[in-house]
Each structure stands twice: as structure tokens, then as C-alpha cells.
TrEMBL record, chains A, B:
This is Chloride channel protein. The keyword Transmembrane applies. Gene3D superfamilies: CBS-domain, Clc chloride channel. Residues 38-52 have a biased composition (Basic and acidic residues). Residues 167-176 have a biased composition (Basic residues). Keywords: CBS domain, Chloride, Ion transport, Membrane, Transmembrane, Transmembrane helix, Transport. PROSITE patterns: CBS (PS51371). Residues 1-81, 97-142, 167-203 are annotated as: Disordered. It is a multi-pass membrane protein. The lineage of its organism: Eukaryota, Fungi, Dikarya, Ascomycota, Pezizomycotina. It comes from Trichocladium antarcticum. Belongs to the chloride channel (TC 2.A.49) family. SUPFAM superfamilies: CBS-domain pair, Clc chloride channel.
């Protein structure tokens, strides 16, 4: 009958048969270990009920009735337990650390040490674990944790448990030691719904506690409002600086003219002039070098072009150097990384101060360089960096990774809010694109943050036009029914563009990674910047800043004051214009495809909108010419005679929306952003139709948008919530899980500090399930590598300084002297979540997605069957996708290319599954 | 050693000690039961490994490696298993139902019967359960189900499993019997990531399957677009009809005048007249009775008042009679019920056709009656009824309660969209207020549905003004910094109003329920309608329709054409106006509080907005007077001289937003709705501030908004997702769960059909956990009352017609003859989700909330500890809230008042927890 011997017999000798542990004579006379153990799970199949009185309470075991009898008898048992340990209660009352003291406390010298070597901070015995207990979150089961390592996944459940415990401490600050008073030790009424812990009788402490909670709740608001203010101010500064630097490439505001200042942009310099062409203060570089005003000439053109080129390349290189020197995470748009972080992954320094500074400065330089990149996506990253900065002011948020992510999700909205002047669009962007957990209250917080930022930007008014964004427009005319047809074409074009762009961009990225002969990132940036300048300068539409271009493409001719691109003058509606627009779109496509992915801050939203707007405007001009030449055509009958029937600007905005939908695969956010840009419901229907078609066509190319493609390319461990992008293969979870025969599992007892250290050395796995004994494999818990390593390290150092041969165990050992043994239970997740092994993979995936787990254990009737980690799931989902696409390919083949992924990704998992590792590590008894 | 005898020894005799089942000589020679059983969980603690070969495969056991050995040996075992049952494989190949045939199939006569009495449709043996298997969802574990009863909770996991199986069948329609081919019977590579099921080699079937899936996916869109069209049209019809009926109370469009038609509303009748007062066609009742035009006189006033009263009461009574006679669910706003339904509860007929018709007609009558009620909330209900109507066209959605709820969540947005002309607001309303599960794709679907409805409404243009809503406004001026102060006051007032209104309304509701002497609902409606008419008629502001009033209160004086309330004429800014406005607000408060809850279709949104607008306008006029009289006051310095500095209309809209936030506790949706009503970002900041303050102040009164209060009042089983409204008490789940000693549990074997029927008769519980045997209590599964009752009933009728003494069991019985015994496993949830009993209540609640469970079982190391149902959780959450509020009160005391809750609510739960029921039902052996 080996079952009854599970965790008593393995005390450093082999567990042969029933041990002597049940013999009361064996119990040591140590006062500290006066605990009894009715730890029923070990004896669940033992019908020697009469032995129970000899075993005491296990302090880590909650108040369960004995599971091996259906007679209700917990009441007398509780009382017996209570009466049988008066010494413990007295010591508990005498100590100021009463609620943290337990009956097997280590000697005071050990307790005072910085290492939390005493096995548990709180006694969860029935009655003693009252609701007013202190911060004893590890007693809930998930165990104690050391800080997360970089590039590991967070445990949402653990973080929320921590937060709850903190809240509880806040609520009950006035009665912190209530749990140890003897009056509360009486057992609760057996079938409980107990009185909840929140009733306070005295009013003053209640008021104080109320105020404390209010202050606590207001922290999130302070962070978000400060972030909103900072983001609005930063966005304004970036707008002004970009404007100035962008104009500097063409000329400067001459200080010699009245009111002229070198630091003024062209718009500011020429403020008051209706036509910027005759502005007195603004001097182009050609004029400055040639020493004369006005006129043209090839020489001037070359001089100005050379300045444009040199300055553009200089700005780009400066941005690249900033990124390389100060914060590598400032590169790129940041949205793929942000999605991963919000999905529950630790990336240290990604939201740091240096990243914030570098990204802001680098963004100004990169945008000013004239390359085909935007500031919209990076602004979201900047917004999250700001929020993270303010989060640091409040440890209660800063120390909780889950709450931090809630606040960051909310703050992300302010980035899009200032980028497009669209606060609602920002909230929906965060909801649709970025966030993982987005509770209702986050939506409101997000909205407030986004509005604050938009208001601040409006107060700064960086464009001196009252507009939040350069390309905000209002249309005076509505659309006609027949125009739905070209709008549908634009939608389809947008989808095709999106699909092709993602393919091209990813191919460039892969090539760049594989081509080892390529020069360093800064040189790459210089080359692309040079190429961009060479292509941009001669091209009428591409020479200007993207936002200027988009603004002019969007605008209605009747409202355009400054027609610098000649889109509205007489004869602009010609085949030549159309060809030039489409030519610019094609060139921009290639430039954007090689630019997005360089090591500079660079977004993809604005270039995409520009390309879409160029195409849309071209289609609009085609329609305009057609309508003008054939006004009698049946479709054009609805046009009123002497009024322009077609507004090409509306085609541009619909083209931009369609292109954006094709590239990012967002839907609602894009429509809402465009709605807020145009300020009227009029064009929502065509935008909606175009966006929907674009998404459908794009999805036919690939299910992943540009951000998801980059997540996949970088092998970020992001578990997509939507089944659309990542279909879950339909199979039993047992086919995926690492079976127990392939796992390194630990037995409950029979270890020494040295043997555990040896296991850690021998196996790279990130965690170990703990089972009762090798034959029964009853699951007891799960201990992560980090916690195990930390405890072992701490135990062998002073103050404990345990020798390597010290016995270590994961289950209650009534014979063990706590001074000379190591109880690892406080560091073990004693209530790991389990599933039956015959459940489907879908259910397991929804556990990971909805509950935010890191691992789930498969258990059939108490017996461990296997383990599934977040990585396994990620691997299966992505591998499945790959094989679905290139059917016949070996699974996993497509996953090897992730060279940019920092080493250590997935480092929290149990280890490579295919390695034929020894299955018996830790089984000294076999 | 009783453990090894768990489920073999209890075959209708007492399970004393080890049974004879392990004796190979005991096995019958029956060919059908040639199965072997390595059903490891039963023998997990049995070290008699050598006996294994004698026991065959259990067909319901998935491909797990044997859990009692860590040596990798499943490969040889699989092969042995494969070779040892050639007869089975041959029969499988021979039968066209191969994948559904199992080795213990009942005789064909039984299989052909309509009752699915054969125990399992699919064989899940290793290899045989390939990914391409047919619709065998019950094999995944949750078991087969009969249809949900009315007023029970749905099982989200089960529904999504069903949907997945349907999808899988769609994908693999071309190779449905792949699973039974011998080649796939070879075991998968041991540590698997298997090739996913989606790779299709031939292109034509792939194309067909692709088209089939596209058609399948388009069903949702068809439903939503049809719903959008219908909702838009219905809303337009309701608007026109309400307008006409409302005007009929005052007069009629005289057919004697040129172009006059009796069916025209006043606006339509007077179309073309600038001032409606001099409209020729419109005849008031006074004029009609007195036979003369124009003029006043007390007699005329009385005659018109009497007509107003009689018609108003008639309309209201008609609405009440409609509701009583045709659809009782058409009463009230419908939003509390809708929340409950979307949260996963079955309410038959709540979304039926009769409800749709009754609610639409009743709404017209109720709104026209002039009572203080709105059509906004009911329109959401109408929208969901429309969607439900179209859902019936597509069985694949209609038969899946989870998908149906996704579509309904999406469709709900169209209701708010047409009510406020605010499609984005509608989506956010659905997201914030209504929905439980709202995946990303639902947001887009919701948006499309809402936009379609808004477009249709715009096309109908029911108000002939181009506006979607009567009270859409545009402000020409902006606000000044000092105005934030009155806006803050309005926010606080809104919160106070909201808190008081909810209290008053709930008190009226409770009184109405408790006062048994009250007349029937129709008489109540008549009395309230009469009272309303008597109060409304003499009051200048209250006589008109609410929407007219709100429209005039919102509007800016400089843009008002028709100042019928005299708010803009010279001298309107007087103390008299202020008093009249506030007086109207107070009267309206009481009328609305007694009206909301009557048995007629009635929303609370518009009355609330009207009350808020009345107050807001009053505050605006106060500010206006103050600024006019003291233009030199320091705060007013920012006012420009000759322009009106204060726009009282903006105060009205902010007051309305604040009142709405106070009553409903929504935030984002209200701001977005108001933003869409005003069409500019200008007033978003003050609205935001007012809404936020109002919510905070309101939350100080009670955490629940009006809809949540009604949900609670009616005791609907809605599990709130937000922790803010329902704090979860911090306690171990084991304190809440029904312990095993209080449960009625069934053993795996030892039952007869008659004994099970007797248990069903004796205990009202809605489900029974199934355990191995009374001493070990290893959890095997859970069977619901409905399924158990159905199976027992079916088994005793032809074609099976089993006698009552037939043996029935829940575990594999190698000795049982399937023809003469009843295997209940297919109807049992064989993989019920479990938690360790020491986990905290929070974790259990997140299981219910995030995974959508109906019950969770607590298991420690395989041993059943207890059960927690959704009802228990609901009970604890609501009881805890109650005790927190009225601290000291016995928990549950506040829950007894639910007399309006239909009988049978919570009927799916395991039964009342406090009843001292026999614990031993079903234990024939004890």
C-alpha cells in the first residue's frame, strides 16, 4: 500500500513502502513544530481515519472539510484543532507580527534577515484566515514570486491577486491584526456565505479608510491626466519642430527682414501673407547661395536640391545615431512591441525615459528628413512612454504589471488622439488594435486621457489654424449615388495595395536580415534617405512633407487657398496630372516599403494615407474628366448643372481610408478617425464601404495586418485574441501538451538543496511541476525556475546559511525541523489551474487568452498528465497558420528565422519539448 | 485496498472491498463488449499493472499515455491496442457510419430509433479521433444536451464548442469519414504538434469549401444589414406616427383646407409656413368644437384640455392593453432584460415577433400619450427583436445561443443609432452598457448595422429637416473658461438627480409590488396618464412632446426659428422663467419616477434628458442674467462686448448629459452621443467634466445605475462583469461552495433506471456530480437534471423500452451488455471544469465571468470537494453588496422581495443550499 506513504517516507532515503511517519512516537518534541496535519489530499485514499488526531493542522491548508467522509463533521474538528494548539495562539497574541507568525516560525534571527526564508507569512488555518488579513497574497495559492525577468510573460491572475490583497489591506488598515485574535478563530457557520469584510462599525476610521481609498483610486486619473497634458504638449512641440526642420531643407526665415527669425517655419515666417510665394522673410537656399531673389535656373535647382539632399540625409542619420546610441527600442513604429507588452510581456526599457526622449527627438528628425514615414504610430509609443513615466510616481500601479497595462492601454489612445485630432478614434484604436484587457472603466479613462491631450494640442494650436491636424477637412458638398462605384473600386485597390505592401515590406525585412553583407543600420538609413531625397526632389508631389501633401489632396478645390501642388488650377484635371499622381503613388509605395523597418522612429500610417490619397485623387480626377466630357451619361444625370459634380478631394480621403484599412486591417477606428477628420456623417457610408472591401480583399492576401506581420516576423510572443487571424486547430489538448514522460517533475520530498541545485543546472526548463511521488503523480503544485533558484540561493547564504545537504520539500513534513530544513511551499504555486487532459485545445487556449495564464497543467482525477505553456500554444497557433498556408511544410520550419528576436524570448517556458531529457530528475527514490 | 475497486464493484450490490471485476474469469463472452480498458484514472492508484492487458480500451477515453508510469511506452501500447481489436476495425471499415460506430454499438434497431440511445457517436480512441471528425461535439466532454429550458442560463463553452464542430464539418465536408480509415489509426508522433486539419490537397473541393465558408460567414452580415434596414424604417415610422398622434391631442390637419389631410402631423400640415401659429390647415380641437378660429377664452382652454386628457389617457390605456394582451415582455424599457439575455440567460418570447409588434405599436401610443417616457431604450429592444427575427432565417445562428447573442449585441447598437442619430454612440452604448461578450469583430458588425440604420433613417427623413433627431443642434459660439464653474455645478446636480431618481423610482416600484390592494396594471397606467395630463396641460413647458421640449431647450436663440416656448423672446431671461423651468423639472421628476415601471413600453433616457435640460437651461439663464447685470465682474472679462456671452442652450445640453450620466451611469457613450448630437469637439470637454462628476456623485448614492437597479429588483441572474458595481468579497471559494456533504452526488455505478428516477423525484436539484464511489469521491463528471430526465424518459419508452430495473451507470462497465443496460456517459459532462478548493472566490468568479460557465466543481487531487453554481456566485455578490450597504443585516435578507421574478428563475441551479437534504441519495451501497 504505497499510496499512504507519498510524502512522508522520502526524507532523503528511498520511499520503500509505508513510512514510519504515521507513528506518533516518531514525532520530535520540538515546540515549534507542534502542528498537526489532517492534510487530507495526501491521505485521500487512506481509510485509517483514526490516525487523524495524531496529525495536526497543516498551516497552508485552508478550511476544507475532510474530503474522505460525507458526514458533516468539520465543526467539531475545527474546535479540536483550535483547542489543540493553545501555545501557538498565545505566541501569536504576544507577537506584534502575530498575523504573520506561524507555528513553525524560524528563530528570530532568521526572520529578521532580508531573505524571506520563513515559509509562509500568514496562517490560513480555518478562522485564522479572516478577511482582514494583511498582504498575504501568496497564501492564496499562486505562491511568492521574485520579480519578472526581462522578456518573460506576466501572470495576470497573480498580478490581480496581488492588487486585491493591496486593496484589502487598504480597506482594513484599521484592524490589521484582527485575524490573530482568538475571537475570530471560531469557525464560520458551516455552509457559509460569510459576512463580507467591508462592514466597519466606527465612522471615523471608516471615513479615513474611505479617503484613503479615494486617494488610491485617483492615482490612475492623475497619471492619465498628466499623460494627456504631456502628450498634447509633446505633440505640439513635435509638430512645430518638424514643421521648422522640414522647411529648413528648402530655405530659412531670414533674420534680416522685419520680424524674421531663424527659428520660424515658413508658415510662421510668412504669417500674414496670403500667398506664401511672395513672402518677404523666407529665403530659399538657392537665393541665399546665389545672393539674389526670385528667378529659377538649373543652377539654382541643383543647389537647392543638393541642400535638400544633404539636410535630409543628415536628419535621417542623426535620428539613426540617436536610436543606436541611446535607445534601440525607439526605432520603428513601436506598435508591434506595444501590442506584445500590453498582451502581458515584460520588455524592460521599452517604455523608459531614454526611449521617450530618443523617440521624440528622433521622430522630429526622421519626419523632417522627408523620408516616407509618419509620426502617428510612434506618437502612440510616445504616449505610452509618458504614461509609464508618470506611473513611476505611484508604486501601487508601478509594482503591478497588470494594472500598469490597463493604464498604458488607456494612455495609448492619446497618441492617436493627437495624431489625428480624433479622441474617439484614439479610444477605438486602443480597443481594436492595441489592447488585450480593456475593461469598461478603462474605456472611460482612455477617453478622458485622449480628450485631455486633444484639448492641450488645441490650446497650443501648433498650425495656427485652429485645426488639430494639418489635413482636417470639411466638405461643402455631398456625394451622389453613382459615386459608390468608384468608391468600391478604391476599396478594392486599397485592399490590393495593403496586401502587396505587407508582402513587399516583409520581404525587404527578411532580405535585410538574411543579407549579412549589408552595412550597419545607420548606413542603411543614410542610403535610404539619400535615395528618397533623390526621388522626392524632382517629383512635384513628393518633395513636400507628407502631411502637406495629404492635406492638399484631401481638400476641396473651392476651399483651397494655397494650391501649391497645382491640383485646383485651370487644366489640372488632365491625363498628365493623373499619371503624375499615380507615378508618385508607385514610387512612394517602394520607398515606404524599404523605409518601414529601418532603425529609426518611423510610422506607416501617414505614408499609407498619402499613397491612398494620391491614388484616390487620381481616380477622382478621372471621374471629374469623365463627368465633364459626358455630362449626359445616364449615371451623371443626378449632377446639378453649373456646380462641380465630383469633388476629387473626397476620393482622396476614401482612398486614404481604404489604403489604411488594407495595411492595418483596422475597421471601426479608421472610419471613426476619418469621421472626426471630416466632421460629418456625410461621407461615413462610402468610407465604411471602402474600408470593409479593403479589409476583405486584404484578408484574401494574408490574415495579418502590418503590425501582426511584424509581431510574427520578430517572433514576439503575442497570443492573438481573435480567432480570425489565428485559427485554432481543432484537436485535443493532450496532443499538444508536454506529456508527463517528457517533463522534468519534482517529487514532494526527497530532495536536498544540492540535488535541487543540480536539477536546475542540468535542465534549462523554466518551471517544474511538483507531484506526490513518482508512481502516483498526484499533482501538488508548480514551481518556477526563478523562484526555486532564488530560494535555494537565499537559503545557502547568511542568515540561514543552510548546508547543501539540507533536506528540501514541497509538502508538509510533520517530522521536519523548520530550522534545519527548507520548506519550498511558499514559493510554489500550490493551486495551479488545471484542465482535464481530454479537453479540446480551444478550451485550453481560452484559458490562456481569457484568464491570462502562463501555463496550465493537465490532470485527470488528480494525476498529472502533462503541461501546456503559453509558448506551446503560441507555437501551435503560429505553426498551424504556417502549415495551413504552405501546406505540407514541416511544422515549425517557418519559425527559425527570428534572428531579431532578442535571446531569451520564451525563456519562461518549460524548455524545448523535443529534447529527450531525462524524465527522472529529482526522483532520488527511483 | 479499496482503491482499486472504485467503479467495478458497485454493480447493484454493495461495494465492500475489492470486487471480483479484476478477475478475468468474470468477463462475459459477449462479442460487443470486447473492449479493453486501460482507463487509467480508475486504476491510477493500482499498482497491479499486469492486470491491464485484461481490461480493454474504454471508447470514451482519449489518447493519453498511461499516467502511472513515466517510462515512455505509449507507442508499443498503442500498437498492442490496435492489434488486439481487429474485429472492431473491420466493422468500422465495413460500415458507412464507421466514424460514428463504436465497438459496443447497440443493435441496429436501436440505432435507427429517433432517440439517440447509443451511448456515443464517435470513437475517441487514439488515432481514431482525427481532426477531420464529424459533428461529434459531445465527445469533447461537455456531453449531449437537450434544449435549454426557459429562464435558464446558457453554457457559453458548450455553445462555442458546438459552433466549432459545425465549422469543422463545413471545412471537412469532402472527407467526412477520414477518421475511420486504418491509416489514420496509427498513433501520432508522441510529443505531437500535429499537422493541422486545414490542409486540403485538391483545389476544386477546396474552392467549394471556401465558397461554403464564405456563404456561412456572410449570414451574420445579411442578418445585420437587414436588421439595420428594418430598424431604420421602423424608427422612421415610429417617429412619424408618434408625431402625428402627439399632435392629434391638440388638433388635426383639416381636410377642408387645400392640401390638408387628416393623417398629417402639425409640422407636415403646416409645411411651408414659417410660423406654425398662422398655419391655415391646422385646426385645434377648441376651434373645431367652438367652430371659430383663433382667440382664447377659458372655455376653449377647458375644451382643449379635456380633449388632451381624454386622448392622452386613451393612448396610454391602449398601449397597456396591447402589452397585457399580446406580449408582456413589451413593457418597460427592455434594457435590463436585454442585458440579462445577452449575459447568457434564456427568456423565451422576449425577442419574439409579438413582442416586436406590440412594442412598436405600444411605443407609438405611449409616447403620444404625453407621459414622461421616452422611446430610446425601447428602440434598442425593438432593434434586437428585428435582429432575432432575421436570425431565424439562418439555423446555424439560430441554433447557437452564443452566436445569437453576439449578433444581438451588434444589432443593439442600431437602436441607439436611430434614437440619437449617433451610430458610434450606439456601438459604444452596446459595448459599455449592454454586452457581455463583445469581440473585436462584433464591434465592426455593430458599427455597420448602426450605420445602415442611421442611413435608412436619413433617407426617410421623418422630420423633413435633414436631421436624424429632432434635438440635433449646432452651436455657433464656443464656451468661456469661467463657464466651467456652472458646468461643474450641473454635473453635481446631475449626479444628485440621478441618485435620487433611482431611489425614488425603486421605492415606487417596491411599493407598487407590495401594495396588494392596487388595481391592475391597465388601471394604474390610466391613473398615471390622467395625472400626467392634468399636470402637463397647464404647464407651458410640459404640454408639448418631450422631444420638442428638449429640442427647444438645447437650441441657441440666434438660430431658433420657432420659439414656441418663449425661451428666446425679449425678457425671457427672467426669474419667472427660471422658476417655471425648475418647477417643471421637479414635477417631471415625480411623474417620471412613477411612470418608469408601468406595464407599457417606456424608456427613461428622454425624460431624464428633458429634466436635465430644464435644469441646465435654468442655470444658463441665471448665468445670462448675472453676466448682463454685472458685465464688469472679473470672470466675465473674457466676454466680448456686443455679442451674447452666455448660450443657455449649451447649459441645457450639458445638464441633459449630466442627468443621463447620473441615472444610467454610462460615460463614454453619453459623451459620444452628445458629441454626435452637436457635431463638434467644442463642447466635449465640458460635457466630459459634467458626466464624470455626475457619475462620481451618483456612485456615492449607489453603485448601480437605473438598469442595474431594475435587474436587481427583478432578481435577474445577471453576473456583472465590472468589479466596481459588484465588489467580490475576498474569501476562499471553499467558504461559498456547496460542500460535498450537502450535495446530492451520484456514484458511477450501482443505479437502476428506477432508482435514478426516484432521485430525480426526491431532489429538486438541477444537476448532480458523478463520483467514482462514496468513499473516494473521485470526480467523474456532472449530469444536469434535464439531460438525466430526458434520457431516463427516452430509455423507458419504445424503441428501447427498458424495464425500470435496468442497470444504469456513468463509467465504463466492461461487464455490461449495452442492449440491456443504460450507459449515461454521453449525456454527462465528462470534463467539467474544476478548480482547487483553496482558490479564492475571485478566481472562481472570473471563471464564471470570463469563461461563461454555469457551474464549477472543486476538486483536490481528483477528489470532489464541492460545487459552485452561477447562482451561488450571483447570490454571494448581491448578498455581499446588500450587507455592505446595510451593515449588520443578515445576508440574503434583501433578496426575498423578488416577487416579479417569474417562478423558475435560478431553476438551473443545484438547489437551495440551506435545506438539510439527505446527502446519500444515490448511494445504494451505504
Amino acid at each position: 500500500m504505497p499510496i499512504s506513504a507519498i510524502n512522508y517516507g522520502a526524507s532523503s532515503s528511498s520511499d520503500s513502502g509505508a513510512s514510519a511517519a504515521h507513528d506518533p512516537a516518531n514525532r520530535p518534541g520540538d515546540g515549534n513544530s507542534s502542528a498537526d496535519d489532517p492534510y487530507a489530499h495526501d491521505d485521500a485514499h487512506d481509510d485509517a481515519h483514526d490516525e487523524l488526531d495524531l496529525l495536526g493542522d497543516d498551516p497552508l491548508q485552508p478550511d476544507l472539510s475532510s474530503p474522505f467522509s460525507f458526514k458533516r463533521k468539520q465543526k467539531p474538528r475545527h474546535i479540536t484543532g483550535f483547542l489543540s494548539r493553545p501555545a501557538r495562539l498565545i505566541s501569536a497574541l504576544a507577537s506584534p507580527f502575530a498575523s504573520r507568525a506561524s507555528h513553525d516560525i524560524p528563530p528570530p534571527a532568521q526572520r529578521l534577515g532580508s531573505l524571506p526564508t520563513h515559509p509562509h507569512d500568514n496562517d490560513t488555518h480555518p478562522g485564522a484566515s479572516g478577511p482582514g488579513a494583511g498582504p498575504d497574497y501568496h497564501a492564496e495559492g499562486p505562491g511568492r514570486r521574485v520579480a519578472y525577468e526581462d522578456l518573460t510573460a506576466i501572470d495576470w491572475i497573480f498580478e490581480y491577486t496581488k492588487e486585491r490583497q493591496r486593496q484589502r489591506a487598504l480597506h482594513h488598515h484599521t484592524t490589521p491584526h484582527r485575524t490573530s485574535s482568538p475571537s475570530s478563530s471560531s469557525p464560520p457557520p458551516p455552509p457559509p456565505p460569510p459576512t463580507p469584510p467591508t462592514s466597519q462599525s466606527s465612522t471615523l476610521p471608516a471615513l479615513l479608510s474611505h479617503i484613503r481609498r479615494l486617494l488610491d483610486a485617483s492615482q490612475v486619473w492623475v497619471v492619465l491626466i498628466l499623460s494627456g497634458l504631456a502628450v498634447g504638449a509633446l505633440a505640439a512641440a513635435i509638430d512645430v519642430a518638424t514643421d521648422w526642420l522640414g522647411d529648413i531643407k528648402h530655405g530659412f526665415c531670414s533674420p534680416s527682414v522685419d520680424g524674421g527669425r531663424f527659428y520660424l517655419s515658413k508658415t510662421a515666417c510668412c504669417y500674414g501673407y496670403d500667398d506664401e510665394a511672395i513672402c518677404a522673410g523666407w529665403t530659399t537656399w538657392g537665393e541665399a547661395f546665389a545672393g539674389r531673389r526670385g528667378g529659377g535656373g538649373a543652377g539654382l535647382w541643383v543647389v537647392e536640391g543638393a541642400t535638400y539632399l544633404v539636410l535630409g540625409v543628415t536628419f535621417a542619420v542623426a535620428a539613426a545615431v540617436l536610436v543606436r546610441e541611446f535607445a534601440v527600442y525607439a526605432r520603428h513604429s513601436g506598435i508591434p512591441e506595444l501590442k506584445t507588452v500590453l498582451g502581458g510581456f515584460i520588455m524592460k526599457r521599452f517604455l523608459g525615459v531614454w526611449t521617450l526622449v530618443t523617440k521624440s527627438l528622433g521622430l522630429v528628425l526622421a519626419v523632417a528628413s522627408g523620408m516616407w514615414l509618419g509620426k502617428e504610430g510612434p506618437l502612440v509609443h510616445v504616449a505610452c512612454c509618458c504614461a509609464n513615466l508618470f506611473i513611476k510616481l505611484f508604486p501601487s500601479i508601478n509594482n503591478n504589471e497588470a494594472r500598469k497595462r490597463e493604464v498604458l492601454s488607456a494612455a495609448a489612445a492619446s497618441g492617436i488622439s493627437v495624431a489625428f485630432g480624433s479622441p474617439i478614434g484614439g479610444v477605438l484604436f486602443s480597443l481594436e488594435q492595441l489592447s488585450y484587457y480593456f475593461p469598461d472603466k478603462t474605456m472611460w479613462q482612455s477617453f478622458v486621457c485622449a480628450m485631455t491631450a486633444a484639448m492641450v494640442l488645441q490650446a497650443f494650436d501648433p498650425f495656427r489654424s485652429g485645426k488639430l491636424v494639418l489635413y482636417q477637412v470639411t466638405y461643402s458638398s455631398s456625394w451622389h449615388g453613382f459615386e459608390l462605384f468608384p468608391f468600391i473600386i478604391l476599396g478594392i485597390l486599397g485592399g490590393i495595395y495593403g496586401g502587396l505592401f505587407i508582402k513587399a515590406n516583409m520581404r525587404v525585412a527578411k532580405w535585410r536580415k538574411s543579407a549579412s553583407w549589408l552595412p550597419g543600420p545607420v548606413v542603411q538609413v543614410a542610403v535610404v534617405a539619400c535615395l528618397t531625397a533623390l526621388i522626392n526632389y524632382p517629383n512635384h508631389y513628393m518633395r513636400a512633407q507628407n502631411s502637406d501633401l495629404v492635406s492638399n489632396l484631401f481638400s476641396e478645390c473651392s476651399q483651397t487657398l494655397d494650391d501649391r501642388f497645382g491640383l485646383c488650377h485651370e487644366g489640372a484635371a488632365s491625363a498628365g496630372t493623373i499619371i503624375l499622381l499615380l507615378f508618385a503613388a508607385v514610387l512612394a509605395f517602394f520607398l515606404a516599403a524599404i523605409t518601414f523597418g529601418l532603425q529609426i522612429p518611423a510610422g506607416i500610417i501617414l505614408p499609407t494615407m498619402a499613397i491612398g490619397a494620391l491614388t484616390g485623387r487620381a481616380v477622382g480626377i478621372i471621374m471629374e474628366i469623365w463627368q465633364r466630357n459626358h455630362p449626359a451619361f445616364i449615371a451623371f444625370r443626378s449632377c446639378e448643372p453649373d456646380i462641380p459634380c465630383i469633388t476629387p478631394g473626397t476620393y482622396a480621403i476614401i482612398g486614404a481610408a481604404a489604403a489604411l484599412a488594407g495595411v492595418t486591417r483596422m475597421t471601426v477606428s479608421i472610419v471613426v478617425i476619418m469621421f472626426e477628420l471630416t466632421g460629418a456623417l456625410t461621407y461615413v457610408l462610402p468610407i465604411m464601404v471602402a474600408v470593409m472591401l479593403s479589409k476583405w480583399v486584404g484578408d484574401a492576401f494574408s490574415r495579418r495586418g502590418i503590425y501582426e506581420s511584424w509581431i510574427r516576423f520578430n517572433e514576439y510572443p503575442f497570443l492573438d485574441l481573435s480567432e480570425e487571424t489565428t485559427p485554432i486547430p481543432d484537436m485535443p489538448a493532450s496532443q499538444i501538451m508536454t506529456r508527463i514522460d517528457d517533463l522534468v517533475v519534482l517529487t514532494a520530498a526527497g530532495h536536498t538543496v544540492a540535488s535541487l541545485a543540480a536539477i536546475l543546472d542540468a535542465h534549462p526548463h523554466r518551471g517544474f511541476p511538483v507531484i506526490s511521488d513518482p508512481r502516483d503523480a498526484i499533482l501538488l503544485g508548480y514551481i518556477s525556475r526563478a523562484e526555486l533558484a532564488y530560494t535555494l540561493h537565499a537559503a545557502t547564504r547568511p542568515p540561514r546559511a543552510l548546508p547543501p545537504e539540507t533536506e528540501a520539500f514541497f509538502a508538509h513534513q510533520p517530522l521536519a525541523d523548520p530550522r534545519s530544513t527548507l520548506d519550498l511551499r511558499p514559493w510554489m504555486d500550490q493551486t495551479p489551474l488545471t484542465l482535464p487532459s481530454r479537453c479540446r485545445l480551444h478550451l485550453a487556449v481560452s484559458y490562456f487568452q481569457k484568464l491570462g495564464l502562463r501555463y496550465v497543467l493537465f490532470v485527470d482525477r488528480g494525476v498529472l498528465q502533462g503541461l501546456l505553456t503559453k509558448k506551446d500554444v503560441w507555437y501551435v497557433l503560429n505553426g498551424a497558420e504556417e502549415t495551413r498556408r504552405t501546406s505540407g511544410m514541416q511544422e515549425g520550419e517557418g519559425l527559425g528565422a527570428g534572428a531579431t528576436a532578442p535571446p531569451g524570448f520564451w525563456s519562461y517556458v518549460t524548455g524545448p519539448r523535443r529534447r529527450p531529457l531525462s524524465q527522472l530528475a529529482g526522483y532520488r527514490s527511483l
